[in-house]
Design brief:
- The structure holds two protein chains of two kinds.
- By secondary structure, chain A is of the alpha+beta class.
- In chain A, 17% of the residues lie in helices and 25% in strands.
- Chain A is globular and about 40 Å long.
- Chain A starts with a strand and ends in a 5-residue tail after the last strand.
- Chain B has a domain of 125 residues.
- In chain B, a hairpin with a 2-residue loop joins strand 1 and strand 2.
- Classes of the chains: A alpha+beta, B mainly beta.
- At the A-B interface, helix 2 of A face loops of B.
- Chain A: InterPro entries: Beta-grasp_dom_sf (IPR012675), Mopterin_synth/thiamin_S_b (IPR016155), Sulfur_Carrier/Prot_Modifier (IPR052045), ThiS/MoaD-like (IPR003749).
- Chain A: Pfam families: ThiS.
- Chain A: This is Molybdopterin synthase subunit MoaD.
């Protein structure tokens, strides 16, 4: 099963995801994100906009590769992979 | 009597309570999250905050227990098919002699929830939200679900029916760089007014477009910009392209409306059928963002003047509020209790409010001031707030 790791900022909105090893079945980035949404309803609203596009200040990586396709999220997350969800911080 | 003040700030929601003769802020709510607007629904006391998460998208936050607990809701979204004419910014190869012949369209996503308004007493659960890019959303279940007002989205002034494709694509709504910390060059709805006499009578105001009116609950809309003057367009009296910064209405005399516009202060005493410019540059009353009107007397209004477009700060380093009691024929500068040296505050469009004899405003410098005598004297509520975007009393 792929593992999902995310910025601690998101635990503020989804405390049920904290202190857990998050996993989802292999599939596209979109499918993995929506699998997390099953565990924490509303999760995708924070990472994706209403078009399903990754929000401007959010970055996704599969292992050490940045996800370039931010619109269709078709990249595959395989068994043993880790999907990372970051926020791009700047300013004060 | 006002007992609570709500501030929307760069770092959260601030509630300030009356404590005897003084006022005291509670610990900040939504800590660290930009809040572009916070208000209390006068019908049932529900508190609302429009959150402007930098990373996670705009959200509404709702408290039904006076601010103790909040629920963030993300149900306000553009429906499938909602697209708009995207602004094309000048690029290095932009040729004004040969501008692109075909408009560019973009699917709409909510960049910002900029203003909230509440329906009439006989419309329980009716809420309005104004967004960037330029959507008027309506909820009839207290914010659980939202619907985009399509007649306004598809209005002829912004290019026609962009859902169905029956569009003229002649867009009269300009973009606005107005935002919290960054430019969003899409037109935004920042003022929503529900007539207390008739909740189906609505006005909205759009940056870089103007004022629109509906008399049928939002089924049809018409521009209401007659008498408006623009300094920056070849035709200063054009139907569209006006830049109201904020528009408000006298609750007791709803035909009296005021707008602080990019190009001056404008007043209407005929329900926005016509406007007249009532600026007085001699007292500094011209450029600014907020305007408040007395609850009973439609001729009495307050503004917080700033320097011109090019220098958005106080005039000569002194902060003052200007009041008119005669429909803008004359203005009085009220300075008692406000800093008159080395003050460079600017007060944004939602950051001045009036309730009875109480007035309150907050600046992007993080200063908040209160008057309990209609602006004659002011007391400081604090100097170290985060930048303040909205102030609402009650």
């Amino acid at each position: 099963m792929p593992t999902i790791k995310m910025t601690s900022h998101l635990y503020r909105f989804f405390p049920q995801l904290q202190d857990r090893t998050l996993a989802a079945p292999p599939g596209s980035v979109s499918e993995v994100l929506h699998a997390i949404n099953e565990q924490a309803p509303g999760f995708t609203d924070y990472v994706l906009d209403e078009r399903g596009v990754v929000r401007r200040h959010v970055k996704l990586c599969i292992n050490d590769t940045i996800v370039i396709d931010r619109k269709t999220l078709a990249d595959q997350v395989e068994d043993g992979d880790t999907l990372f969800i970051f926020q791009a911080l700047s300013g004060g | 009597m006002t007992d609570t003040i709500l501030l929307g700030t760069r770092k959260g929601t601030v509630m300030i309570d009356r404590r005897g003769a003084g006022w005291r802020p509670r610990p900040i709510l939504h800590a660290g999250v930009p809040v572009c607007y916070a208000a209390r629904d006068p019908r049932d006391g529900t508190l609302w905050a429009a959150l402007d998460h930098g990373h996670w998208g705009p959200k509404l936050s709702r408290s039904r227990d006076g601010g103790k607990t909040w629920d963030d809701i993300s149900s306000l979204k553009y429906p499938e098919g909602a697209r708009h004419i995207a602004q094309v910014l000048p690029t290095p190869d932009f040729d004004p002699e040969a501008p692109a012949g075909t408009p560019e369209y973009a699917n709409a996503t909510v960049y910002k929830i900029w203003h909230l308004a509440f329906g009439g007493p006989d419309q329980p659960g009716r809420l309005y939200a104004g967004t960037i890019p330029g959507g008027l959303f309506v909820s009839d279940d207290g914010g659980g679900t939202w619907e985009l007002n399509r007649p306004l989205w598809n209005h002829e002034s912004r290019g026609g029916d962009l859902f169905a494709g029956d569009a003229t694509s002649e867009n009269q709504w300009g973009g606005t760089p107005a935002s919290i910390d960054y430019g969003v060059f899409e037109p935004g709805i920042h003022s929503i007014i529900v007539d207390p006499r008739d909740p189906n009578h609505l006005h909205v105001a759009v940056s870089s477009a103007g004022v629109l009116e509906s008399t049928d609950g939002g089924k049809t809309w018409a521009g209401r910009n007659r008498g408006m003057l623009m300094d920056y367009l070849p035709n200063p009296e054009a139907d569209w392209g006006h830049d109201p910064h904020f528009v408000t209405q006298c609750p007791g005399q709803p035909d009296h409306l005021w707008q602080q516009n990019h190009c001056g202060v404008f007043y209407s005493d005929d329900g926005a059928q016509s406007w007249k410019k009532v600026s007085d540059p001699n007292t500094g009353v011209n450029f600014g963002f907020p305007v408040a009107v007395d609850e009973q007397d439609g001729r009495t209004a307050w503004v917080v003047p700033g320097r011109s477009d090019a220098q958005r700060m106080t005039i000569d380093g002194g902060l003052f509020v200007a009041r008119t009691e005669d429909g803008g024929q004359s203005w009085q500068a009220l300075r008692n209790g406000l800093p008159q040296e080395n003050a460079h505050d600017i007060v944004l469009r939602h950051a001045l409010d009036v309730s009875g004899d109480c007035l309150c405003f907050g600046s992007t410098t993080g200063n908040a001031y209160l008057s309990e005598d209609r602006g004659e004297t002011w007391q400081c509520l604090g100097n170290n707030f985060p930048p303040i975007y909205s102030v609402r009393l009650g």
